[in-house]
Queue: 2 jobs
Job 1
Amino acid sequence: MNQRLEVLLVSTPVGPLGSGLGGGVELTVLNLAIVLRQRGHKVTIAAPETSQLESFSIVEIPGELQTLAQTQNRHDPVILPDNSVLTNLWNYAQQVADQYDIILNFAYDWLPLFLTPFFKGKLIHLVSMGSLSDVMDQAVHQAIQQCPGSIAFHTHSQAETFGLKEGYFCLSNAIDLSQYQFCAEPKNQLAWVGRISPEKGLEDAVAASQKTGIPLMIMGKIQDEAYWQTIVQNYSDAPIQYLGFLSTEKLQEQVRQCRALVMTHRWIEAFGNVAIEALACGVPVISYSRGGPTEIIRDSVTGWLVEPDNINELVQAIQKLDQIDRFVCRQQAETEYSLDALGDRIEHWLFQVISS
Ligand code: UDP
């Protein structure tokens, strides 16, 4: 199909774009905006105030940020603060809906999912996390029933957490490969990248670094300060270095010099952007065999998938890193995770939605 679409991207309400609070969603919004623009579609982004996204102008929406879904309990009801940015974003979307062919939601929240049938088939959702709460599960199932085709996940493992085997689109993810440089000869150090928050399980990577004596470079937003302080105190003699929350350019500069990226998540990771960013630099990924990374890493070829929560297995995998060809890691990123491949997948979904 050659149709040029008007697309509204409605960003996450947990933080402004560029703050790091949105985790992987921030990079996903950017990459989808880039590929849609490259293919001639007109893209508008609505996001919380002070958001910044490279060359894209943003419709900034004021209001209180939304509480993180991963800090709530499974049976908690929906929480909306007074003057909620989530509500304000969707008031805005409703006002301008007539100007768009498609409205793509990135919020992991009940409200936009509930609104699906009110947007006349235009409102679709890219779900960014696995199942965390009963209300969200119900809202996802209801959106699929009322508007088939309106839900996409990043991986099948993520869809499974909602008890789904079909009826959704699988978008995977991608990165701008030109921003990541290949490094054939790393230093003797490991990388850990992500939001510093309990579901990401940083302490296991630190424990593995302590056991092997190989320095661990830690990069990412400290989302839970108390959690971070506990790790620092419990592993005071581990060879770790915290480098802060880095721009993509600086991030890849650090990651590519590492022998491996270590992923030690406790939850079912929906995708794991950091895995494909590492592969793009030629860096193998050692990950707990849980969620999205199991669909990304080719075990023993571009990394190692190890038993979840097993630090000894992490250590064994670190000792086998020389068996991995870093060039093959970069190649995998090029064939499966280019922006072009993402462009094909997102257009496929959008045109499917439009034609139905
Ligand atoms: N990230 C970053 N700078 C850092 C650390 C992380 O920009 O110093 C980004 C990284 O590029 C990735 C995101 O944070 O896009 C983490 O996404 P991921 O999908 O791995 O996990 P999430 O936070 O969504 O659970």
Note: The pocket of uridine-5'-diphosphate is lined by residues 23-24, 27, 193-195, 219-220, 245-246, 248, 251, 271-274, 277 (CB under 6 Å).
Job 2
Amino acid sequence: MNNFALKGDILFSRTPTELAVFERHYAVCIDGVCAGVFSELPERFAAIPVLDYTGKLIIPGLVDLHAHAPQYAFRALDMDLELLDWLDTQTFPQEARYADLGYAQTAYTIFADALRRSATTRAVLFGTLHVPATRLLMELLEQSGLETYVGKVNMNRNSPDCLCESDAATSLAATRDWLDSCRSLTHCRPILTPRFVPSCSDALMQGLGDLQRETGLPVQSHLSENQGEIAWVRELCPQSTSYGDAYDRFGLFGGDGCPTIMAHCVWSDADERALMKRNGVFIAHCPQSNTNLSSGIAPVRTFLREGLSVGLGSDIAGGVHLSILRAMADAVQVSKLRWRLCDQSLPPLTLPEAFFLGTRGGGAFFGKVGAFEPGYAFDALVLDDADLPCPFALTPEQRLTRIIYLSDDHAVQHKFVDGRKLF
Ligand code: GUN
Ligand code: FE
């Protein structure tokens, strides 16, 4: 059943600052695509079934532009280190476990189940460097009904022996094997994933750039997250004018036919931001990770003013919460600290702006995603806040605000992706 209408209190972002609210309206889905929102069901849709969620909130599905699936297993354990030490002592040994397919089956089943139950309908994910485990993750996600991109990670330098490909040719051959193995999947698609500049030799970056031009595949990586990391990239790439340029010189930083997501961009300067804007690079803003790893506070207000494309990321396990509702609340909260402590010329984000980032902002990476406007993919959540009683009457906008600040993915009662009902 891909033609139907949902009835309830419908909310979505029209622009970064305007939250559209339609009480007791119908959102119509025809062939998996939104046909619009109506106060009465138009005559031409009179025959379609109506799923009546009167009294509930209906919002677009949320988009997680950056998370590490293998890191879900060890989230919220040791969070007292900065990025480079955390990678060496926690992350890399944990990711090495995915050489064992039995372990991967257990861990990725837990992750895929959690993502399926969450408020997220679309996600862009890192796997590990292991081809069989990454293929397994993709199979589980394909079955979940979610729309996802997954990357087999490339890393061939500055990494421990247990988690390092021996040379560029080996890493590239494994990448081609992995791409061959996932041709049959339709809902979970591959994305090229150099881990970050310190993990990838020039020869590997060159080979990945060639592969990108050959295949047109999208790219994801990390950018300007931590000051120690940035100083290291400067040493490793003395010829590059910026961290972003170290990707761009290999054709792995947006531009025609190369959709790209860069996570973090906490410390990107004006030149790096201008390059991202010119190349249409998406920024995955990951406020909780940036807090846990003491990375800093990304200047999201500046990104928005400059017209950059921005979405939200959980960055599991730099971030410990999978919830993009939580990422919205975190984005608002850290922006207030940035405003108060760093730069009073940049006002903090409002909640509607954070909602925009977690829906349309990140959704744009997938195309027309993140709103109930005609032509948009019909990704929808039915939210039930009955277990959040309040002694006075609340507007739909206030109810949504509470669900976001309380970051309660349990409020998700039903979930639709491209018009497919997952539950
Ligand atoms: N940079 C390179 N690898 C990682 C990772 O796994 N997490 C984060 N937050 N940053 C990284
Ligand atoms: Fe990350």
Note: The two ends are 13 Å apart (CA to CA).
